[in-house]
Structures are given as structure tokens and as C-alpha cells.
Design brief:
- It is a single chain.
- The protein is an alpha/beta fold.
- It folds into three domains: 84 residues, Winged helix-like DNA-binding domain superfamily/Winged helix DNA-binding domain (Arc Repressor Mutant, subunit A), CATH 1.10.10; 96 residues, Periplasmic binding protein-like II (D-Maltodextrin-Binding Protein, domain 2, 3-Layer(aba) Sandwich), CATH 3.40.190.10; 100 residues, D-Maltodextrin-Binding Protein, domain 2.
- The protein contains nine helices and twelve strands.
- The strands form three sheets. Strands 3, 4, 5, 6, 7, 10, 11 and 12 form an eight-stranded mixed beta sheet that branches. It has a two-stranded antiparallel sheet with strand order 1-2.
- Helix 7 links the parallel strand 8 and strand 9.
């Protein structure tokens, strides 16, 4: 049976008049009559009794009507759900964000995305670059914002978002406040607070060894907020991405000689079909002006 046949029959149930049912269904009366007749043939018995006095519902019609109404109700619910999904209503997407990326950097973008797509539901998942890559490959994430100095897995596609330099973070009153920039050699001997989750730790280790610079590590943590809070409190210095320095009172200067930069990119599994919400997020973040 066809859905339009059910719809026409329900219109006749409601009006008990084939002409009015046809008008409400925006079809001709003969077309509606043929469709109802075909439905009756498929069901095996007449739904209506037609005579010169009008139209009456048969006992079989009264039995079948609730089932036909249920079919139409379920189809309408399915269409609404599909339309809502395509319009991003209640359509969730899991987006990984590397834990070393400052949240403040994304507030403006997330706020605008929310305004443009009020029905979208974003689940942000924090983790290291390696962890997020594993989540992408395991299809537990659709998208991830991350930086990988060694380059991502070949199975992960990427779109560059912005670049940021590393800076030296230090407490108020530190000698670095008198400088416009700080070289790696000038940081020698400073007590170092290590950001254990930093994806560039290997590169910094190689640079320090190449220059014979000693930086005694007095504390290490994967918590970015702890490291920055301790730096601001005078426990030592740390190398942090420029846009990740957010703790009040923290002072920073660009790291030079050598300058170290990272590229933050959006990653997704190559060949994977993105959900409508993920596609909208991908397209929006790709054209966002990071300033």
C-alpha cells in the first residue's frame, strides 16, 4: 500500500464525503476514489459503504482505521525527526580539543556557532594530541582540534586553523619583565615548571641539549591551570603556547633564538562521512577569522 492511499482514506474517514476529502487532499475526486479502491483491494475488504444517501464506515473500516492512523503518525514523526536532524536539532557531535589549547581562544567561535546553529549539540572531549588521534581513528570522535609537531597519522585529514608561538611565562616582578623577548639561553638556570601534556616537550628537550642549557624541573603536571597558577605564584617559569596563557597575573614574553611555533589544525578521519552537525562545525571553523 502507498502512503497517499492511506492519507486519502483517512480524509474520507474524517469527512464521510469523497468530494470534500479530495478537496482537502488537493486531488480530484476520481483520483482519490481510485486510490481508496486500490487500498481496499490490498486490504481485502471495503472500508466504506457507498450509496445514494452518502458514505458510511464499514465494520472492517472501523477495525482498520486506528492502524492506518498509527502508520501515518509514525511516518510524520519520522519525517520530523529527519528534518530536525538535517537542521541540526538535537544532533550531537563529539569534538576533541587538545588539552593544551586555551579555552578562551574558542569562546567567540563557539558562541557564534551556537547562534548560527541553535539546535546543534556539541560534546567537547579533552585530551592529548595522541589520545585525540586514537579517538579519531577509533571513530569515537568526528573532529578534533589539535597540534602535532611530528605530523598526523596519514589516515587523518587536517585543515590548518592558525599558528601560535611559544612564550616564556613568568611571575610579576621577574627579571624577564625588563625584556621584550627571551632567548633560550637567557632562560638557563631558571626553575622550570613542566607542562607534561605539551606535545612539543620532545622538541624543547632537543633544543636545550643542542645549546647546553640546563633548566631544572621543579614540578610537572598535566594540568595546564595548575602550571600557570604556580608560575603566577612565583614557583618558576614555563614555556606555554601564546594563546593558552590565561591565568590572571601571568606575565609572558616571546621565546626567541630559537622561536618555536605550532600549527593548530582541525582533524578528521579520511574517508569518513561527517554528520550534518560535524559538517556544519567543520565548515564554520574553517572560515572563522582567528585574528
Amino acid at each position: 500500500m502507498e502512503l497517499h492511499e492511506i492519507r486519502y482514506a483517512l480524509a474520507v474517514f474524517k469527512t464521510l464525503n469523497f468530494t470534500r476529502a479530495a478537496e482537502q487532499s488537493f486531488v480530484t475526486t476520481p483520483a482519490l476514489s481510485r486510490a481508496v479502491k486500490k487500498l481496499e483491494e490490498e486490504l481485502g475488504a471495503p472500508l466504506f459503504q457507498r450509496d445514494t444517501t452518502g458514505v458510511a464506515v464499514t465494520d472492517f473500516g472501523r477495525l482498520v482505521r486506528p492502524h492506518l492512523e498509527q502508520v501515518m503518525a509514525e511516518m510524520s514523526a519520522t519525517k520530523l525527526a529527519a528534518r530536525g536532524f538535517l537542521q541540526l536539532d538535537n544532533a550531537p557531535v563529539s569534538v576533541g580539543v587538545m588539552c593544551t589549547i586555551g579555552a578562551a581562544r574558542f569562546l567567540a567561535f563557539l558562541a557564534q556557532f551556537r547562534l548560527d546553529h541553535p539546535g546543534a549539540r556539541i560534546h567537547l572531549v579533552e585530551g592529548s594530541a595522541d589520545h585525540l588521534a586514537e579517538q579519531l581513528l577509533g571513530r569515537k570522535l568526528e573532529l578534533a582540534v589539535m597540534a602535532q609537531p611530528e605530523g598526523p597519522d596519514a589516515r587523518i585529514r587536517r585543515r590548518a586553523l592558525y599558528r601560535e608561538r611559544f612564550v616564556v611565562a613568568f611571575p610579576p616582578g621577574h627579571r624577564f619583565e625588563a625584556l621584550d623577548e627571551v632567548t633560550l639561553t637567557e632562560a638557563a638556570g631558571e626553575q622550570h615548571l613542566l607542562r607534561a601534556s605539551c606535545e612539543y616537550n620532545g622538541q624543547f628537550t632537543d633544543l636545550l641539549e643542542a645549546r647546553g642549557v640546563q633548566l631544572p624541573i621543579v614540578f610537572r603536571s598535566e594540568r595546564e591551570d595548575w602550571i600557570q597558577t604556580m608560575v603566577a605564584g612565583g614557583f618558576g617559569v614555563s614555556f606555554v603556547p601564546e594563546y593558552s596563557a590565561t591565568i590572571a597575573g601571568l606575565r609572558t614574553r616571546p621565546l626567541v633564538d630559537p622561536a618555536v611555533e605550532r600549527e593548530v589544525a582541525l582533524g578528521w578521519l579520511d574517508g569518513a562521512a561527517l554528520s550534518p552537525t560535524a559538517k556544519a562545525f567543520h565548515d564554520a571553523i574553517a572560515v572563522w577569522d582567528w585574528g
